[in-house]
Amino acid sequence: MAEIRVHELHKAFTDFTAVKSSSFAVRNGEFFCLLGPSGCGKTTTLRMIAGLELPTSGQIFLGDEDVSFKRASARDIAFVFQMFALYPHMNVRRNIAFPLVSQGMARDEIGRQVEQAARTLRITHLLDKPVSQLSSGDRQRVALGRAIVRQPLAFLMDEPLGALDAEFREVMCHELRALHDRLQATTVYVTHDQMEAMAMADVIAIMNEGVIEQLGAPLEVYERPASVFVADFIGAPSMNFLPFEAGLASGDDAILIGPARIAVPPLREDLSPRALLCGVRPEHVRFDDASGLRAEVLATEYLGTRTVVTLATAQGTTVRAKVDVDIPVARGDHVGLAFDAAKISLFDAASGRALRSARDETPLRAGRRARHG
Amino acid sequence: MAELRLSGVVKRFGGVTAVDGVGLDIPSGEFFVLLGPSGAGKTTTLRLVAGLERPDAGRVSIGGRDVTALAPALRDVAFVFQQYSLYPHLSVFDNLAFPLRSPLRPSPETEVRRKVEEVARMLRIHDKLQNPATRLSGGQMQRVAIGRALVRSPALYLMDEPLSSLDAKLRNDLRLELKRIQQDLGATMLYVTHDQIEAMTLATRIGVLDAGRLVQVGTPQQIYENPGSAHVASRLGSPRINLVARGLFPQLDGPERAVTVGIRAEHLRLHRRPAASGPGMAHRGASVRRIERLSDLHLVHVGLDDSGQELIVSAPANESFEPNDAVQVELLRPLWFDAEGQRIHA
After folding, report:
1. Of A283, A304, A370, which has the smallest distance from its Cβ to B323's Cβ?
2. Cβ-defined contact of B290 to A237 (cutoff 8 Å)
3. At the N or C end, where does chain A have fewer CB atoms within 10 A?
């Protein structure tokens, strides 16, 4: 296994720039997610690491080796594509063995490696089945088997779960992460699904229009988004953004939205008067009759453990609140809204940049999960 | 708007029974969601109601009228498919107007204009009416497809996973709009999906389909809190309900026939130290394996001592656990299932 380092990577196509000077490092054994909407440059970045595209400029290191302009076959990595590029006329065993056969490995060694990969993926019972008889989940396990059997330096995965049913995707997320914990292989995983990234990654790089907007652990990008784009992209339902205008000074710890005074984390910068956004996640919104921030309930969505309530504020902003199912609200009700002050993010409306505040100083829980074990 | 009734509907394709004796009463104005995995018979059921398939047995009636033998065009239903199929050479306006200009049901042009504009406003695409249909984003195209169903006032709307081709964000937004529009119109809706969140949030009632059979019908809350079988219990709720062998909890009082116990992640509590066992409680030693820190709550994966069994526990975000912490697991609301996976009410 190895570290991957990407330095000032740039990719321009004739009519647009897909990746703009990206730099990041994936540590040995890390599960690294490139996350963003379609067209953000995440797949192009992955394809350059794989050697399927050549960069316009910049460098890629696999371990200590500069592989920037090496052919894909000369890089010791395994690529898992979106779904099932399996050979339909071969059984599971021969599909998994294929990369080793092409390397010219000895037959009994191949047999041993295939058995071991199958045990890791818990698909030993499927080895002699034709792939056409497999469920979609088992096919994906076989596709993974073909990647891990080579024991490459790193795995690159391009939306491998994209074609699965939502509920099955959740199961596969747990499996993939458990597999990663067993193999501890450096992995770069591309997805547009923030849930997948949040559930699996050690580090997430959120990309937008060819640029990495933020790089951090899931909890960090969730609790301290660096921009409106990141705040909006991570979390479902998304963060609420309430517009207001103000000039603020370092140390200020409240803002005015309409008639309501809203407590916020103390600011750490001075701002001339301008358009700003108050960002608050749905689970940090409460109903409070004493609050001057009034809103009307537009809809309620029952989710088993929680209810998502959609409201329109008196200022005309749509706000979503995630509340306990036993809180009685119905369409048409008028309520007051209160926010969990410590969790509020403030943004400059024009640039989208998050304002510096005490939010950035609260300790995040260390070590989202034990990295090796 | 009208009610829909299916009785004893069967549809076979060769040797496969796709729909196996489905009976269903959907009152006027209800948003009914058929939920099931691919291959459960959802889409076939929808196509039988639309008249795109003929049943091998059973009857379909809409608004009290038996339509079993009626051609699709005469059933007065509007169908929205998974893949939006717009006329690429027509503008958004003409796409929306198309059903109203149908030779079967022609309307005067002033009426067409009024109706199209009303629906376009409802779906927030009124500023796009003159655009060619191909110059729209995916979400806008799907809104036009839904709009084409809404311009008519059919007895019944049929929707086959209309949101599944959209990205997550847009899906959330359109889901809410669809619910609002359905409520405003008082429309009767039969909606098919494999996405449990859509089912929970949209439905007045959900029907869970499994292998062509309707296995449970109820409000989202009834089905979530009172599943009739282990299969239904595992279809609703994220994370998925923990289903474990009853034998792993020998000290827990349960019905004799129970083979499996189901506990939702939110009905498990983690305690740091051995806590005193009260009546109806069951504590079991376990150790924390890993933690998924999702937004407002944390999913803690624990492994039970002396067995490889893993449970997923949802813990409030302010309780911090770390891998390898030794804990006690408390079961609050166990659900019991027999050897066939059927619920046993304790």
Report:
1. A370
2. no
3. C
